[in-house]
Design goal:
single chain, 195 residues, alpha+beta, 2 domains, six-stranded antiparallel β-sheet, 6 helices, globular
Length: 195
């Protein structure tokens, strides 16, 4: 386990350098590396010191009746490597690339069908698609284009929660999300991206 601690220290130093250089791609890569090292340390520790029969998994209870997680599904998303979408024309280039990649992967129709069945209210994720809607070939092509896989929690708000209140909750509680209204049911939902 000592070599893993050395790897972790080295990765943290590398992260510090990447932050200093202001290199978003390097920061993203090093953060993933740190997560992998930490997961390995935890797994090794548990394998040595924790008896599986002693583990009791408790369900997580929420005290709020305003919203609840109703499902978790896998999505593909296109990472953004710019800080402020309102500066320059970065979002235009991003949107153009996203559309070209969806067309090349033959996933554009599935993407558009999914998003046209929802009214987007607000959010900060600009390129995503439920994994189950992509063909195997399309999935592989999007991965080659730099898209990534993530779990997305589907959060449903109660009927008593107004759109403004749902947006306030989203901004306060979640980092990466899309707040939307499902056109068919008129329900306010939030897609919480776990990345």
């Amino acid at each position: 386990m000592n070599y893993q601690m050395d790897d972790l220290k080295e990765a943290v130093n590398r992260l510090n350098d990447s932050l200093f250089k202001d290199d978003p791609e390097e920061v993203d890569m090093v953060v993933r590396m740190i997560k992998n090292i930490v997961t390995q340390i935890k797994n090794d520790y548990w394998a040595l010191h924790v008896n599986e029969d002693d583990i009791v998994i408790q369900p997580v209870h929420s005290n709020t009746k305003e919203y609840k997680i109703i499902n978790t599904i896998e999505f593909l998303y296109k990472p953004m490597y710019f800080q402020n979408i309102y500066e320059g024309n970065e979002i235009e280039y991003y949107s153009k690339d996203r559309t070209e990649e969806l067309v090349e992967s033959a996933c554009i129709e599935a993407h558009n069908d999914f998003w046209q069945s929802h009214e987007i209210i607000y959010g900060n994720v600009y390129g995503s698609l439920p994994l189950e809607l992509a063909s195997k070939e399309g999935f592989a092509k999007l991965l080659k284009c730099g898209w990534k896989k993530t779990n997305v929690d589907i959060v449903e708000f109660s009927k008593s929660v107004a759109v403004d209140q749902a947006r306030e909750i989203a901004e306060r509680k979640y980092r990466h999300y899309i707040l939307l209204k499902e056109i068919e049911t008129n329900c306010i939902l939030l897609l919480r991206y776990n990345f």
